[in-house]
Amino acid sequence: MRKETAINYAKRMHSHHKLTLPVDVEHLAKKYANLRFEEFPIDIDGVAANLKQRGKTPTILVNKDRPKSRQRFTLAHEIGHVVMPWHMGTICDITNENLVDGSQEYLTMEAEANAFATELLMPTIWIQRLLDEHENLATISQIIVKNGGVSPIAATLRLRAMLPAGYLFIVMNSKESITYAGRSDGTYATPPNKGDGPDAIKRLSYASDTYTFTAGTNTYFWFKLPDEIELEGESDGDWRLLLDTIVKEITRNTDEQIKYKQKVNGVLGYANSLIGKGAQTEKSLYSACVQRFANNSALDPITKHKKFKNFLASKIRDLMSKI
Ligand SMILES: [Zn+2]
Fold first, then answer.
1. Residue 276 Cα, ligand 1 centroid: separation in angstroms?
2. 185 CA to middle of ligand 1, Å?
3. If you measure from the C-alpha of residue 54 to the centroid of ligand 1, how many angstroms do you get, rounded to a whole number?
4. What is the mean pLDDT of residues 140-169?
5. What span, in angstroms and rounded, lies between the C-alpha atoms of 50 and 40?
6. Which H/E stretch holds residue 211?
7. Which of 9-23, 99-113, 214-228 has the lowest mean pLDDT?
8. How far is the CA of 125 from the centre of ligand 1 (A)?
């Protein structure tokens, strides 16, 4: 609720000052506070001091050793601390999580200042218009970076929060190692882990669209995952027998056979729970299962088995027939 209020403060700031993009945060900050760019001996992005202190003007300090786009975000964040009436005293924005005051109140104020900064630099109506006008998420990301004056990761996280279910992003460094990944709310597929390699990209080959752009030494990938996938298997036969056949061909160890079946049933149980949550078609359920199976490398022997698609199609038809 308070986060919503923080966003409204940023919206009001836009209309009150008739701001244009990229927002001149330096000019704006000077209307509310003393502003200094400084070097810090510790790992800190910025400070908002003298907040709501009688007779004192608030002061904003920004770490000048950070990249320009990051300084802009920090500045927008500190303006948030200054204008939100319940943010009081002195707030230090420490980058190193181990040194952060972990109190709930501090974390809430940080989330509010971030929500304020996000809305100030990348207004909701602007992002929504970009999403309406363009299909290519790489194009949209690059427009946000350029016209919003933000970092590619800030633009990516902004899109993540606004996209509907079914989108996943990956950031890969020059050594082809994943440094960041995430998904829009409600997406079935789980993002790969930090440190995973290019195999994670291959596992998303079922995506209906892929958008890529590079920024510095990083490559950004957006995947649009299909709402529905055509059932590929012939689904002749009983899915239980098919699963039995598959696990027996993979291993003769009965304990391992049981473990495989439990893992497969875990994914299918999830699919079953989706049926209870809302309307599903055979094809949408198949897509949900493909998304859940695709990045589970422990199940590779199963999912790469020639009878797996038959098994999955048969199981899904069985699930649907029971509705
Ligand atoms: Zn802060």
1. 41
2. 25
3. 21
4. 97
5. 18
6. strand 209-215
7. 99-113
8. 25
